[in-house]
Amino acid sequence: MSLLAVEGLGISFGELHAVRNVGFSMKPGEIVSVIGPNGAGKTTLFNMISGIYLPKSGTVHLGGEDVTGMSPHLLARRGLSRTFQNLQIFQAMTVLENVMVGYHLHERGPVIADLLGLSSSRRRSHEAEEKARMLLERVGLVRAAEKEAGSLSYGALKRLEIARALALKPKVLLLDEPAAGCNAVETEEIDHLIAELAADGIAILLVEHDMKMVMRISNHIVVLDFGEKIAEGDPATVSRNPRVIQAYLGTQAAEVTYAVG
Amino acid sequence: MRLSKQATLLVLAALIVVAPIFFPSGYYFRVGSLLFVNSLAVVGVVILTGYAGQISLGHAGFAAIGAYACALAPVHLHVHPSIAAIIGAVLSAVVAYLVGRPILRLKGYYLAVASLGFGILVSMVLANEIAITGGPDGIKVPELGLRAVLADWGLELTNAQFWYAFSGLVLLVGSWLALNLYNSPTGRALRGLHESEIAARTVGVDVAQAKLVAFMISAVYASVSGSLLALQNRLITPDIAGYMHSIEIVTMAVLGGVGSVLGAIFGASILTLLPQLLTVFQEYEQVMLGLVMMLAMIFMPRGLLPSIVGLVRGRGE
Ligand SMILES: Nc1ncnc2c1ncn2[C@@H]1O[C@H](COP(=O)(O)OP(=O)(O)OP(=O)(O)O)[C@@H](O)[C@H]1O
Ligand SMILES: [Mg+2]
């Protein structure tokens, strides 16, 4: 059975059908990429799946449960986590604290214990801190742990968001352009990290403009154009699809063909 | 730079203990205890505004609940004034829950506007329900009685000295709680939603509930501050619920630096002491006060304490 199933999802802003009748499904450990030109509706699709926008039509099922339009914090409890294209970092908090907030569901306890600084509260904080450090290690940011997050480079913040999203221990992870603004080395690291996470059984839904990366790591690709799904399938099939090449006319078309070789 | 919890408490305790050495007269104990009472409400604002980023312009309403509880509960419920203060605090938390629940689901400045309305409502009730509250003339508040107990134990304090010490102690406890919260799971959730509600929600923070918790906690701070004021003045009038008082509480916090307990208390000190100093300007006192506040916010938007610390460190390098 599929872990995440999206059916007939659609939303419009005024006259604009930002996403129309999009569906796909994914199993644990699978990497599914959503590609399409700028403004195709990829981020909007993410926003509907993650409960930030209420879809006008269609359904989202998570682990068999209908979660359409459910609040993000309730989706988080069900194991859905995400990162943001336009960074949503807690700038004034430290790098470490950013990831610790990601542990919220695991570290929270009675407010009164937090006010009184009881040992139970301090123990929860301590555990969260240890686990957060491990995740920072994993994304290569452990040495920046005590720095104010706002002082980090764009590429580092992208990785910080991944670490924070992982703190939730998600079953489904939505990554919106995780490699944007990263250099070649960092991109490769993110590439490896995504593969590792999938190997751990996390279902990864990826939006990424780096076609080489998409073609290399995806099990399945969904192509959007003007809010509609114009193709889907494995990387080789999708990159040969004339409609996809049409949508990507220009520099990116060359990239698509190049990447598949 | 951020002082640790221990350092903050130590600095605060040292100031409270050492300051009386420089007091030329007993009158300064009264100013000091007023400062501590104001500071307590302001520390509550640090939690609501500094941590969680929500603005309330109605906290004087909670101060009034705390104050009037101390006047009314001993008479009508025959409880000790200390129990009355606790009743006031619980009542404030309940009222904050009822007022905050519908509002805090909304975004933006709704809380500011709605809480302003709440504060005005409280002051109107207090002024109009003359049979119970004594109306605009105010109402007497019974003696706390703790000073007599201390005297029995051989610790003789003047009334002003007692209230200086007692309010100072309550302020220390209040600061300790706020500092515990800062580095706790709840504190991190509040500080997170302050910066990005969307990100906080996607990692599982129930944002509406977290804001409500912050609102309730800060209401209790205001309530206890009102109780202390009532008990030391022995008379309370509806002025305590006035919106000027609400704005004063927020201004103190923002002026000093709403992000930290010490900064906010610094702001409370300035705004409590400055009027005493500015009396030389007589009828222009209010104008001068407004001017000082405007200049401070224009040139030190992060608040006085962080800006001054920044300046000093910048020079040192
Ligand atoms: N909240 C909104 N209100 C109005 N229009 C919106 C909103 N969000 C997105 N849109 C519009 O919907 C369309 C799809 O936008 P979306 O951000 O989903 O594209 P995208 O595929 O993520 O593009 P990119 O590759 O540039 O990130 C765009 O035309 C965008 O302007
Ligand atoms: Mg996008």
TrEMBL record, chain A:
Q: Which SMART domains match?
A: AAA
Keyword Transport (UniProt): yes
Q: Cross-referenced CDD domains, in alphabetical order?
A: ABC_Mj1267_LivG_branched (cd03219)
Q: Which SUPFAM superfamilies match?
A: P-loop containing nucleoside triphosphate hydrolases
UniProtKB keywords: ATP-binding, Nucleotide-binding, Transport
GO MF annotations in UniProt: ATP binding
Q: Which InterPro entries match?
A: AAA+_ATPase (IPR003593), ABC_AA/LPS_Transport (IPR051120), ABC_transporter-like_ATP-bd (IPR003439), BCA_ABC_TP_C (IPR032823), P-loop_NTPase (IPR027417)
Does the record carry Transport as a key word? yes
Q: Domain ABC transporter: where? A: 4-251
Task: Cite the PROSITE patterns for this sequence.
Answer: ABC_TRANSPORTER_2
Protein known as: ABC transporter ATP-binding protein
Q: Which organism is it from?
A: Microvirga terricola
